[in-house]
Amino acid sequence: MPVATLLPFTATPNRKSASPTSFRLTEKFILLLVFSAFITLCFGAIFFLPDSSKLLSGVFFHSSAVETNTRTGPDSSDPGSAGNDERVLAKIKKDHEKALLEAKDTLQKRPDEIKQDILNDKDKVAKESLGQGGNDVNKLPFVEYHRPPGATGHEPEDPEAKDRRAKIKEMMKHAWGSYRRYAWGSNELRPVSKQGHSSNLFGSIKGATIVDALDTLYIMEMFEEFDAATDWIEKNLDFNVNAEVSVFEVNIRFVGGLLSAYYLSGKEVYRRKAVELGEKLLPAFKTPTGIPWALLNLKSGIGRNWPWASGGSSILAEYGTLHLEFMHLSKLSGNPDFAQKVMNIRKVLNRLDKPQGLYPNYLNPNSGQWGQHHVSVGGLGDSFYEYLLKAWLMSDKTDEEGKKMYYDALQAIETNLMRKSSSGLTYIAEWKGGLLEHKMGHLTCFAGGMIALGADGAPGDKTGHQMEQAAEIARTCHESYARTALKLGPEAFRFDGGVEAIATRQNEKYFILRPEVIETYMYMWRFTHDPKYREWGWEAVQALEQHCKVEGGYSGVRDVYASTPNHDDVQQSFYLAETLKYLYLLFSDDDHLPFDHWVFNTEAHPLPKNRNQA
Ligand code: DMJ
């Protein structure tokens, strides 16, 4: 079709320059160009002006949305339309309020938390597009993240508590800052010689202090340090090592630390790393009974037990301290294996006869029979009892089996191990084939906190009785500190040979920055608000500052009865994970990591209770 026919009104008959034909053609061509540019501009404006979709729907898809509504809903002349309008208005109001709340929530978040929310949303959309729950086996299932209450706190109103809490944060800064300066990436710090320290408990896995300290950094709002730790973990934390590790230690410090960091911060990297490490630990359960080995080569998956453990036995406090972390691993990975493994441990235990109702420290993973009949609520036994109680609490009190096992065990401990000294100090002795050794370990002092935590659910009106027991144990453990020259507690203290709460053997006089006594003060403070627990905690702070603080961090001491400290030159990772965290919580208000929502693993890593996981 000729252009002239298309554009009759563009003809300019008076033009003189070129021949009429050629002139007309050129002009028509130019006019065609101008016209098509104009049309393009109009379309461009429609498509690209802000809110063009609304314009489009209004212009081209005339009121289709409105029509859809009127077709499905009552006609405007319908007598019910007034009610409909109200419903629509109510919905608009509700949506508006929801949006306001969300905006308020977002404003309260840190930039990295907002970033994390965006990543979570993206992940959710990606998973949804993969199909229900996600089908990619190499990826973890989508888990909606909700931060449980009390992940961070606020300054206490009480001025003394406020100052003391600030002081603990300063201590954390010194411990962490020194580690960062002198031992970054090593497992622990040698604060006197100012260099890294590696414990063979972790094989060649590195960074124990970083992972153990993560949640303490978070709850103290040391976010810059937390971010530096996260960065190190993303780039350097590697579990593909050809080395033997302690399954228990790696679980409580690394898996526990990573899980807590995930629940506090919502950062996916922690969930991924926790599950990756958990999977590496699973071969430890390949024994005839499913009772795991103590030691495991992470590369070969070959396990064995400590050579010193009675007849090749596994240790109660080690295989009995996996439950909390493994239940969370199943939840976060969608892999039921973790939960099955730890539930099977209970099955094995429940089939066995228990001497006087007690659980011996040693159990052979091949035969499923007890080794030596030694029983302890300290080293080799301690956290097994703690995890029975906390499994019940963490399950929002649905794990009746854990509950029964805990209260039955506690009754047997009270009957057979708990004693009173002649001056009236309550202690928990060790039991060796029916004979009592009147010694209590520093480790055993955690039991004051545990008994207080469980007292509320004690069967048969025993709540008051158990609270008294807990208070008495706290007092005894305080005495073990008060009766030393440095005002720090020995590794073990005795109630025989004319002494009470005093270490008599040279190899029991050391203090390695352990948390258990302060842990018990923290629980007792929360349940009683008796000021003496804060005072006792403060005494410990002063002793730590005076005798353990050195230029390059904090060090353990070799003899708490010597008038001047002889430093052991190790800053244990649990000092940052536990001792400083429990001190900080002791001087915080109760709504910071509230017991209603959190349980602490045995390395003081907070894990949410089931009620938070709707
Ligand atoms: C920590 O690693 C844990 O608390 C464990 O349960 C026992 N010992 C240390 C601290 O003393």
TrEMBL record:
<keyword id="KW-0812">Transmembrane</keyword>
<keyword id="KW-0326">Glycosidase</keyword>
<dbReference type="InterPro" id="IPR050749">
    <property type="entry name" value="Glycosyl_Hydrolase_47"/>
</dbReference>
<keyword id="KW-0735">Signal-anchor</keyword>
<feature type="active site" description="Proton donor">
    <location>
        <position position="249"/>
    </location>
</feature>
<keyword id="KW-1133">Transmembrane helix</keyword>
<dbReference type="InterPro" id="IPR012341">
    <property type="entry name" value="6hp_glycosidase-like_sf"/>
</dbReference>
<feature type="active site">
    <location>
        <position position="516"/>
    </location>
</feature>
<keyword id="KW-0472">Membrane</keyword>
<feature type="active site" description="Proton donor">
    <location>
        <position position="491"/>
    </location>
</feature>
<keyword id="KW-0106">Calcium</keyword>
<feature type="active site">
    <location>
        <position position="382"/>
    </location>
</feature>
<feature type="transmembrane region" description="Helical">
    <location>
        <begin position="29"/>
        <end position="49"/>
    </location>
</feature>
<dbReference type="GO" id="GO:0000139">
    <property type="term" value="C:Golgi membrane"/>
</dbReference>
<dbReference type="Pfam" id="PF01532">
    <property type="entry name" value="Glyco_hydro_47"/>
</dbReference>
<dbReference type="GO" id="GO:0070062">
    <property type="term" value="C:extracellular exosome"/>
</dbReference>
<feature type="binding site">
    <location>
        <position position="602"/>
    </location>
    <ligand>
        <name>Ca(2+)</name>
    </ligand>
</feature>
<keyword id="KW-0378">Hydrolase</keyword>
<dbReference type="GO" id="GO:0005509">
    <property type="term" value="F:calcium ion binding"/>
</dbReference>
<keyword id="KW-0479">Metal-binding</keyword>
<dbReference type="InterPro" id="IPR001382">
    <property type="entry name" value="Glyco_hydro_47"/>
</dbReference>
<comment type="pathway">
    <text>Protein modification; protein glycosylation.</text>
</comment>
<comment type="similarity">
    <text>Belongs to the glycosyl hydrolase 47 family.</text>
</comment>
<dbReference type="GO" id="GO:0004571">
    <property type="term" value="F:mannosyl-oligosaccharide 1,2-alpha-mannosidase activity"/>
</dbReference>
<protein>
    <recommendedName>
        <fullName>alpha-1,2-Mannosidase</fullName>
        <ecNumber>3.2.1.-</ecNumber>
    </recommendedName>
</protein>
<feature type="disulfide bond">
    <location>
        <begin position="445"/>
        <end position="477"/>
    </location>
</feature>
<comment type="function">
    <text>Involved in the maturation of Asn-linked oligosaccharides. Progressively trim alpha-1,2-linked mannose residues from Man(9)GlcNAc(2) to produce Man(5)GlcNAc(2).</text>
</comment>
<dbReference type="InterPro" id="IPR036026">
    <property type="entry name" value="Seven-hairpin_glycosidases"/>
</dbReference>
<dbReference type="GO" id="GO:0005975">
    <property type="term" value="P:carbohydrate metabolic process"/>
</dbReference>
<keyword id="KW-1015">Disulfide bond</keyword>
<dbReference type="GO" id="GO:0005783">
    <property type="term" value="C:endoplasmic reticulum"/>
</dbReference>
